[in-house]
Amino acid sequence: MEKTKVIAHRGAAAYAPENTLPSFEKAVDMGVDGLELDVHLSKDREVVVIHDERIDQTSNGTGFVKDLTLAELKNFDFGSWFNMNFCQTKIPTLEEVIELLDRKKWTGLLNIEIKSGIVIYPGIEEKLIDIVRENNLGDRVIFSSFNHQCLKVIKEIEEKAEIGLLYVSNIIDPWLYAEYLGAAALHPEFHIVYNNPHLVEKCREKSIAINTYTVDKEKHLTGLFKYKIDGIITNKPDLALKVRRKYQ
Ligand code: G3P
Ligand code: MG
What we know:
- Helices cover about 35% and strands about 20% of the residues.
- The chain is an alpha/beta fold.
- Helix 1 runs parallel beside helix 3 (about 95-105) and helix 9 crosses helix 10 (about 235-245).
- Bound molecules: SN-glycerol-3-phosphate and magnesium ion.
């Protein structure tokens, strides 16, 4: 049985501004198995890495990502809100993240979360598949989303693409739903998995992976590593790696 993967949530988001190159670099340097990041489309249809639909929370700018061109987005500072040491950090495109990972010769798992719910980005799925194909990342990427329609479109474009279903509520028999959609994984909020050996057992039986989010406390990490699920998405990859060494 493989070890549970430690997947850095928005990079090492407890230690650097989320979804930026310094955050991903820090996570890679910590020795993570995977990175999770969130994507949106700019006004000129570039895939940019940011969590919110708006830039207000994580930059010195204001407005919706969809209303700003990449050049306009690049004018803002996405680091100072977190810590002045990161002042003038720019919003990255997905391709810039991939370039960084190539430069670092990092070959881990990339979890691309498609943020298409509050703002809908028609055609984002084709753009993502193109980027993944151009960079030969097919077997290293898992797409996830709370918008399962997007994931269905991903599968229609590229049958071999792996998808993980994000969810927060207690769905009945989610392994059957995953099978129906051809999903490789479930990505439940961690309270759903915690103390739920039945879910873990059923998914194992059906070869459906469980990658759970967002787990930052030692107590929860411990419980989940004991279950030997497939992946844990965390803002504190250093802590997760330390706890994993104890139990696996
Ligand atoms: O992909 C796991 C997690 O990132 C989902 O929620 O809101 O942090 O993107 P959120
Ligand atoms: Mg996310």
